[in-house]
Amino acid sequence: MRTLPLEKVATFIRGVTFKPSDICEEDQPGSLWCMRTKNVQGELDLADVWSIPRSLVRRSEQILKTGDVLISSANSWNLVGKCCWIPELKHEATFGGFVTTLRANPSEIYPRYLYRWFASPRIQATVRSFGRQTTNISNLDIRRCLALDVPVPSAEEQRRIAAILDQADELRRKRRRAASLLDDLAQSTFLDMFGTSFEDMRRQWPMRTLGSLSTVFSDGPFGSNLKSSHYRDSGIRVIRLQNIGVGRFIDDDTAFISEEYFARLHKHTCLPGDVIIGTLGDPNLRAFVQPPEVAVALNKADCVQMRVDPTKAATAYISALLNQPIIERMAKSLMHGQTRTRISMGQLREMEVPVPPLQLQHEFGIRSELLTNQRSRHNDSLAELDELFSSLQAKAFRGEL
Question: How many domains are there within the chain?
Answer without folding.
Answer: 3
